Amino acid sequence: MIVFDEGMLMQFPQFGIEIPLADTRVLKVLEHIPQEFLTPLQEEITQADIERVHTHEYCERLLHSDTENALITTYELMFEGQNSHYFHPEKASKPLKELLPAIFKNASASYQVGKMAIECQKAYALGGGMHHAFPHRGRGFCPIHDVAIALRRLQAEEKIKTAWIIDVDAHKGDGTALIFHNNPQIIDLSIHMKRGWPLNGQIPQDELELVQIPAQIDIPIEENENYLENLSRGLEQLRSQSQKPDICYIIHGADPFIEDELPSSQNIQLSLEDIKKRDEIIHNFLQIQSIPQAYVMGGGYGQKVYQVYLSFLHQFFTKN
Ligand SMILES: [Zn+2]
Q: Is the pLDDT of residue 81 over 60?
């Protein structure tokens, strides 16, 4: 099933934010997916869930005492005291702190797809995948690490013990790598651009070491070089070096797609055909092992990335 709630739409322009993470990608998918395959959002995450991953200090700041500044840092709305090109507060019709409910709903959906996947093998959230968030701060358009929050809650509820995270977003899942570094129960695979943000982007000095922590299976890609072969090899490594997990989250980034419009995701440019192969390889790899699959969208920028999501959902989520 595909989890969606209108409250998950970020509606960035209403806040004066002009990052190209457009709700269009979700709206276009909704136009083409029959209603019967959608399911409403029913779960809700709490501050206690968030604090299994993030520091209490950061949660207090983000949720209560300094929401606006925590979000300004997260969405890169200021650089060295200047407004960045992403932020036009004069165009905003709502205060930044009103983004919080949508952030919570996205994280709640990420938890819900995990729970549903355990019950019925696979589920897809039309949102989520905030893989850059660090325990002590939000960054890279990611205020909280929804997938880590979901996994820790599923563990706390004893619904799972072990998990894999397969992250195919163009950017390295550096928040995930930091959170689950050396964790034998949760193994992360990240296939990402070798060059570019965050690995050699504009990073605050105190983060340089943190972004270098490798995913447990870390696959940096130079341009498009042997993308699918490298992915397949990484998956085999995942299978051979760990036990079959109770669940796998897939951070289903569409930003490796050649039509993605974010300047910082241009170092991998896969055709739609290759992206379809990527998704099929992962889906079949997990299905063959009967591992529950929980999907979140990750990054995907501009007007055409919906094609990536739509073709995947058509192929694997709209057939009974
Ligand atoms: Zn990305």
A: no
Dihedral angle over CA of 133, 237, 307, 173, nearest 10:
10
CA of residue 286 to ligand 1 center, whole Å: 23
Question: For residue 166, how far is its CA from the centre of ligand 1 (angstroms)?
Answer: 13
Q: Is the pLDDT of residue 288 over 90?
A: yes
**Residue 19 structural domain:** 2-317
CATH code assigned at 254: 3.40.800.20
Question: Does residue 99 or residue 83 have the better pLDDT?
Answer: 99
**Could you report the per-residue pLDDT of 56-68, keeping only the tens digit for each?**
999 999 999 999 9
Number of domains in the chain: 1
Distance 157 CA to ligand 1 centre (A): 30
CA 173 to ligand 1 center in whole angstroms: 8
Distance in Å, CA 102 to ligand 1 centroid: 19
Give 253 Cα–ligand 1 centroid separation in angstroms.
6
Residue 125 CA to residue 116 CA, distance in Å, equals 11
> What pTM did the predictor assign?
0.96
HSE-CB for 271 with a 13 A CA cutoff: 3
